[in-house]
UniProtKB/TrEMBL annotation:
Its main location: cytoplasm. PANTHER family: FERROCHELATASE, FERROCHELATASE, MITOCHONDRIAL. This is Ferrochelatase. It is found in: Cytoplasm. GO terms for cellular component: cytoplasm. The gene is hemH. Fe(2+) binds at residues 209, 290. InterPro entries: Ferrochelatase, Ferrochelatase_AS, Ferrochelatase_C, Ferrochelatase_N. Pathway: Porphyrin-containing compound metabolism; protoheme biosynthesis; protoheme from protoporphyrin-IX: step 1/1. It catalyses: heme b + 2 H(+) = protoporphyrin IX + Fe(2+); Fe-coproporphyrin III + 2 H(+) = coproporphyrin III + Fe(2+). Belongs to the ferrochelatase family. Its EC number is 4.98.1.1.
């Protein structure tokens, strides 16, 4: 096997610390062909759909990728902006703001973002970072709650890339931050800010992306971490148990997923006298199709159609300064003990390298 080497390697190049934030991904365009490529990569990941490969390959390529892409493309067209998909725009903004914060600490930091599926790919961004001299790397998947289908899959992509490299960087990988105080306060503060301009609801729903129920039974901690996040945010806000609920959205297929389901809950609440609800999605650090269209439109219609009077979606943290401060704190925890070369150390290393017989020209 031929391993990748840094194309522009030089002993005069300073070692740098890389900070890579990743998110799920997005199609390149709101078109059927782009959605077919994206969904083939996403739904073809064995971490996402745990079904025997041969059976799933037949279902995916024989049925799903023939039916679902046109529907998904229509949904994406409804949220697409001039800059691109909301998830891509917000993730780019998060990386830009983080880069500015770490640039103030020194030029030795390289901050980038990548997508698990679609572009920019994890492999391509890692290649760029290592070419720039990154020898220590912090990877922060933007999933506050761990699941094998999200965070675990991101690690798979990092590991697969590393398997083809000769020189590996030191690696620190954040596998969850569901209960980090800075993150909890950032979400709570965003809710408080929303309440300062709107009335408080009768019921606050914390809606998280669902996963099949069997994942919980097989040991995935996602469900428990979602409940913990809701409880901690509610405590920060001073809410009583009857004032909020945790629900799960975005299920796919016929098997049972984590419950209660967000859509079923919103359809039932008006019958119990709840006419005003607000929904916040603490598992989504950036607004995307699942928050803007699924929650803000589809589930809004369910609630109002069932007799509800007021439905409000509280936006994700996106690139809010409080969110960036929380992410910075989280990353700085990972950087503890990692030093970078100063000019004197770099010069000394370069001198030693040049004096090595293998680096001297005959």
């Amino acid at each position: 096997m031929k391993y990748k080497n840094p194309h522009a390697f030089s002993h005069d190049q300073a070692d740098k610390i890389g900070i890579l934030i990743t998110n799920l991904g997005t199609p390149d365009a709101p078109t059927t062909s782009a959605l077919r490529r994206y969904l083939a990569e996403f739904l073809g990941d064995p971490r996402v759909v745990e079904v025997p490969r041969l059976i799933w390959k037949f279902a995916l390529h024989g049925v799903i990728l023939r039916i679902r892409p046109p529907r998904s493309a229509k949904a994406y067209r409804g949220v697409w902006t001039e800059e691109g998909s909301p998830l891509a725009v917000h993730t780019q903004a998060q990386a830009t703001k983080l880069a500015a914060r770490f640039a103030a600490k020194g030029a030795q930091y390289v901050v980038a973002h990548a997508m698990r599926y679609g572009n920019p790919s994890i492999a391509s961004v890692l290649d760029e970072m290592l070419q720039q001299g990154v020898r220590k790397l912090v990877v922060l998947p933007m999933y506050p709650q761990y699941s094998g289908s999200t965070t675990g899959s991101t690690f798979d992509a990092i590991a697969a890339d590393f398997c083809g490299r000769r020189w590996l960087p030191e690696l620190r990988f954040v596998n969850q931050y569901c209960d980090k105080p800075a993150y909890i306060k950032a979400v709570a503060n965003s809710i408080r800010d929303y309440w300062s301009n709107h009335k408080r609801p009768q019921k606050l729903l914390f809606s998280y992306h669902g996963v099949p129920l069997k994942y919980l039974h097989n040991g995935d901690p996602y469900h428990c971490q979602c409940l913990k996040t809701s409880r901690l945010i509610a405590e920060e806000l001073g809410l009583e148990g009857e004032q909020y609920m945790t629900t799960f959205q975005s299920r796919f297929g016929r098997e049972p997923w984590l419950q209660p389901y967000t859509d079923h809950t919103l359809q039932a609440l008006p019958k119990s006298g709840v006419k005003h609800v607000q929904v916040v999605c603490p598992g989504f650090p950036a607004d995307c199709l699942e928050t803007i269209e699924e929650i803000g439109e589809e589930n809004r219609d369910y609630f109002l159609g069932a007799g509800g009077k007021t439905f409000e979606y509280i936006p994700a943290l996106n690139s809010d300064d409080g969110h960036i401060a929380a992410l910075t704190e989280l990353i700085e925890e990972q950087l503890m003990g990692w030093d970078v070369e100063d000019d004197a150390a770099l010069e000394q290393r370069s001198h030693r390298a040049k004096s090595c017989p293998h680096n001297q020209k005959s």
